[in-house]
Amino acid sequence: MSKDTVYISPEYNPHSLQRDWGFLVCKQHSEIIDTLPENLSELRTRLHASLVSQFVLNDEKAHLIACAAAKVTADGFASNGSSLYNEVGLDILTLALLADVPAHRPLHLTQNSLIGHWRWLRDVWRYCAKHPQCDAPPHPHNTVTTALQGGKNNLAIAQLRDLFKKVQQVPNDSGLYISFISSLSLFCPFIGTELLWRQGRIDQDPASRSGTKENKGILE
């Protein structure tokens, strides 16, 4: 696989988003990106711990995030953290490592799985990139963060996908839309940050559009 073919389209290009928002996301997620683990099992455990620790009470953290690193295998493509990060980006990699089963269970990555997550994010981009700005606050009840409070990474991503379906079904519910892109940014900080910026909810500008508020809807 080449990052110049499979994971790029005229509509959604995860590498462009990483160039635009790397300065911000790397600072916010330094515990993951600064020393990116080569071992996929360790990377998966670190991603899970980083997410869950944001939403559970202090006395619950040890139980929920101190799980042994379950084995992660991959076939037919790069099978270490830095190679996959460079090839598919953090957003797709996080979904691939956390979506299908709980973090304490073994996982086998396939190319079809990676492409499937990329296609879902491409659908998200198609729908959200030109969404009009809205001033509504997010909905107070969020099933995604509720799942994370219980340490259930795979359920949280299932709820995220369900939330996107609801956004499409109720396009005039601005609070639901803000809830979705806020939740998306937890797992997919690059596309999530871009969409939050387009809603005026990120103070910094992307690197390629510094000092502007030009929302073109398509990243070249």
Account of the protein in words:
- With 220 residues, this protein is an all-alpha fold.
- It has a single domain (14-209), classed as Isoleucyl-tRNA Synthetase, Domain 1, CATH 1.10.730.
- It contains eleven helices and two strands, in the order ααααβααβααααα.
- It has helices at residues 14-28, 30-33, 40-52, 58-65, 81-88, 90-98, 111-128, 143-149, 153-169, 174-187, 189-198; strands spanning 72-74, 107-109.
- The chain has a two-stranded parallel ribbon with strand order 1-2.
- Helix 1 packs across helix 11 (189-198), helix 5 (81-88) packs across helix 6 (90-98) and helix 9 (153-169) packs antiparallel against helix 10 (174-187).
- The radius of gyration is 17 Å and the shape is globular.
- Mean pLDDT is 85; it is low at 1-5 and 213-220.
Present the secondary structure layout.
Blueprint (H helix, E strand, L loop, with lengths): L13 H15 L1 H4 L6 H13 L5 H8 L6 E3 L6 H8 L1 H9 L8 E3 L1 H18 L14 H7 L3 H17 L4 H14 L1 H10 L22
Helix pairs in contact: 1-11, 5-6, 6-7, 8-9, 9-10, 10-11
